[in-house]
């Protein structure tokens, strides 16, 4: 089996002060491998989004370690050290807030392509944005428009296109299909699965159990900050990708 893309061990996060302490995540251990889709579900407030932020290196745990690409990202203190820029791409719960309001969407979508790669012209970037947005049924959009001119569901798909465009090692997505109708959500599900088939690992938070059952290889159920159940839906995922054949 290949090395995990992300490995969280004994993670705990506590909010509040003495007397009013709230344990948002408690002793959480999880490893996600290339090409694997892990769903995280549970009641509102059980710690799903905090778990995503921990695995993305966006929040420092009060206890435990987070390894991205094998490196302990908090080893040197309060500044996370991911393996490389763009190694992990987040899709936040508020899709409008996750995009820069001043940037036309072609710029947001293709920004990850500008990091450590040959320079692309504006025309090339606009064409790449159109191509990736078309895969998410947004081919009718003018790529020069601003996020403020789009619906929440359209922004969500723009954010997903941005997250996937450069083939990151890991995508963490908070309710990526929440604002979408059934047909559009199915299209997004297909694109996320295709990304996994290309080797990207995904951690998806969702309240939608049916959607997760279709999408995920493994589902973690959380309650009061803890993983209380793990359901393996596709146990042969690593063999399927030929990593241990
Ligand atoms: N910055 C913060 N300060 C204080 N408490 C917080 C903070 N962030 C989260 N919490 C608390 O930690 C707990 C877990 O929050 P989290 O957002 O991870 O839950 P969730 O399962 O994602 O919820 P939802 O499904 O409603 O988005 C909640 O009780 C929340 O109120």
UniProtKB/TrEMBL annotation:
Biological processes, Gene Ontology terms: transmembrane transport
Record's keyword terms, sorted: ATP-binding, Nucleotide-binding, Transport
Annotated Gene3D superfamilies: P-loop containing nucleotide triphosphate hydrolases (3.40.50.300)
InterPro entries the record matches: AAA+_ATPase, ABC_transp_ATP-bind, ABC_transporter-like_ATP-bd, ABC_transporter-like_CS, P-loop_NTPase
Entry-linked SMART domains: AAA (SM00382)
Keyword ATP-binding on entry: yes
GO molecular function annotations of the record: ATP binding; ATP hydrolysis activity
Protein family membership: Belongs to the ABC transporter superfamily.
Protein name per its UniProtKB record: ABC transporter
């Amino acid at each position: 089996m290949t090395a995990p893309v992300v490995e969280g061990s004994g993670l705990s996060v506590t909010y509040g002060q003495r007397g009013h302490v709230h344990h948002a995540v408690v002793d959480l251990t999880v490893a996600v491998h290339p090409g694997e889709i892990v769903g995280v579900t549970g009641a509102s407030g059980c710690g799903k989004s905090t778990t995503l932020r921990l695995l993305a290196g966006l929040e420092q745990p009060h206890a435990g370690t987070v390894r991205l690409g094998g490196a302990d990202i908090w080893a040197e203190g309060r500044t996370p050290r991911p393996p490389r820029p763009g190694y992990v791409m987040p899709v936040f719960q508020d899709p409008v807030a996750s995009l820069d309001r001043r940037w036309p969407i072609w710029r947001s979508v293709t920004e990850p392509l500008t990091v450590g790669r040959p320079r692309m012209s504006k025309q090339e970037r606009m064409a790449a944005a159109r191509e990736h947005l078309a895969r998410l049924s947004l081919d009718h959009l003018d790529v020069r428009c601003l996020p403020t001119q789009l619906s929440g569901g359209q922004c969500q798909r723009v954010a997903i296109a941005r997250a996937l465009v450069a083939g990151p090692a890991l995508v963490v997505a908070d309710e990526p299909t929440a604002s979408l109708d059934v047909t559009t959500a199915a299209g997004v599900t297909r694109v996320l699965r295709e990304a996994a088939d290309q080797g990207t690992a995904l951690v998806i938070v969702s309240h939608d159990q049916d959607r997760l059952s279709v999408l995920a290889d493994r589902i973690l159920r959380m309650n009061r900050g803890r993983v209380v159940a793990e359901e393996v839906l596709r146990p042969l995922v690593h063999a399927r990708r030929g990593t241990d054949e």
